[in-house]
Amino acid sequence: MANTPKVNNPLSVIQAYELQGSYNFVHHARKRLHEREVTVLEVMQIIRGGYHEARKDEFKPDFGELDYAIRGKTLDARKLRLAIAIKSDGALVITAIDLEK
Q1: In a domain, 47, yes or no
Q2: How far apart are CA 88 and CA 96, in angstroms?
Q3: Which of 13, 46, 55, 61 has the most CB atoms lying inside 10 A of its own CB?
Q4: Structure confidence by residue, pLDDT tens digits, 66-97
Q5: 3-class secondary structure, 3
Q6: Is position 20 within any domain?
Q7: What is the residue-averaged pLDDT of the chain?
Q8: What is the span of the domain harbouring residue 73?
């Protein structure tokens, strides 16, 4: 598969896609959200108010993409990390990790 080029400021790109409604959840993300009791609203809170945790970015050779780590706190101070891939037509939420469990 072709490699997706690295984005210099991934959080601003992800935030722009979120504002446009150009983001989606892969099946794995929906499963993890349910298992970890993370809501879509909490995901949006992290995208809007979080920060890029570059040292946790991970290249996925099977998909030819870089998953960017976005970390933050929800309004009720829950600490979460999201893995998000940036595509030419939007962002894909890959998974959500509860950092307190």
Answers
A1: yes
A2: 22
A3: 46
A4: 999 999 999 999 999 999 999 888 899 999 99
A5: coil
A6: yes
A7: 92
A8: 10-98
